[in-house]
Structure formats: structure tokens, C-alpha cells
Design goal:
By secondary structure, the protein is of the alpha/beta class. The chain has a domain of 92 residues: 3-Layer(aba) Sandwich (Rossmann fold), CATH 3.40.50.620. The chain is 29% helix and 21% strand. It has a six-stranded parallel beta sheet with strand order 3-2-1-4-5-6, with helices on both faces. The longest helix is centred in the first third of the chain and has 13 residues. It is globular and about 35 Å long. The relative contact order is 0.19.
């Protein structure tokens, strides 16, 4: 049995905003997480050529947003290693750092819809013990066309943004 269940919340966080906080807090509560690691991606491959705020400033913004809340922690897993930063590699490293933990990757419904465009999406899902997907109020997410239950769909756990 895993020692704890940890949420992995990755993103550029440029800037971190209330929607990020809502997703992280609701996932913490609804998925019974011990902690949510905010994994700031310094140079996301899908945003090359776009203006991104300097990583030091984004670190400061994430720290301010999570405000030393004990349910949250900033992870330096991607900050302290050279890119490119694919979440597949990040999850593999986090499994090494937390070998007894159940790792739950957290994302919004919009990210799930784009999952097939990610780097090696099936391998990524395979590295996740679970995937927590935040649905906006009234949003329907059809995972069957993305991840058939016979493959990885059973790992998807929807969470609701409460009104």
C-alpha cells in the first residue's frame, strides 16, 4: 500500500491564477491527497517561440500563490534539470523521488482533450497511478474517445469545481 497519495500539478504558471488554486484545492480534497506538488515547467516544448516570463519570476509567483500552505509544495524537479521538460520524464523522476507514493497527475478538462498531442501520451498515462481531471461546472468530459477503458481510462478520476 502506498505511503501517501501525492498530486502532481504541472504547468508553466505564467502567471499562477485562481483557477490553478481551485483545481489544486479541489483535487486535494476530492482525491484525498497528502500534498500537491506544483511542478513549474521552465521551458515547455509546446510553448517554444512564445514569450514566457523568466523562471525566477514564475517561481516567486507560485510561492506567493501557494503562500506556504501545508497542502502545497513547489517542486524543483524540472527547474533543476536541463530541458526539454516532458511530463513523461518528470513523472519517472518523481516516482524515483517518491517510490512508495501513489502519484496522481492533475489537469483540467481542456488538457485532457489535448492529451493525444502530448509527447508519448500512452507512456505518460502509464507512469501515472491516477489522473485527476477537473471539470468546470456543467462540463462533460468524454474520455472514451481519448482513452478507452480497456487501456488507461480506468485511471481517470474526475473532480468537480464546486460553485
Amino acid at each position: 500500500m502506498p505511503a501517501q497519495r501525492i498530486g502532481i500539478f504541472g504547468g508553466t504558471f505564467d502567471p499562477p491564477h485562481v483557477g490553478h488554486l481551485i483545481l489544486a484545492m479541489e483535487a486535494f480534497d476530492q482525491l484525498h491527497l497528502a500534498r500537491v506538488l506544483w511542478v513549474l515547467t521552465p521551458d515547455p516544448p509546446h510553448k517554444r517561440g512564445k514569450h514566457i516570463t523568466a523562471v525566477g519570476n514564475r517561481i516567486d509567483m507560485v510561492k506567493a500563490a501557494i503562500n506556504a500552505d501545508p497542502m502545497f509544495a513547489l517542486s524543483y524537479v524540472d527547474i533543476n534539470r536541463p530541458g526539454p521538460h516532458y511530463i513523461l520524464d518528470t513523472m519517472r523522476i518523481l516516482h524515483q523521488e517518491y517510490p512508495r507514493a501513489e502519484l496522481v497527475y492533475l489537469m483540467g478538462g481542456d488538457s485532457l482533450e489535448n492529451l493525444l498531442h502530448w509527447f508519448k501520451p500512452a507512456e505518460f498515462i502509464d507512469t501515472c497511478d491516477r489522473v485527476g481531471v477537473m471539470r468546470r461546472p456543467g462540463e462533460q468530459i468524454n474520455i472514451e474517445h481519448l482513452l478507452p477503458r480497456s487501456e488507461f481510462g480506468w485511471k481517470i478520476f474526475p473532480t468537480e469545481a464546486r460553485q
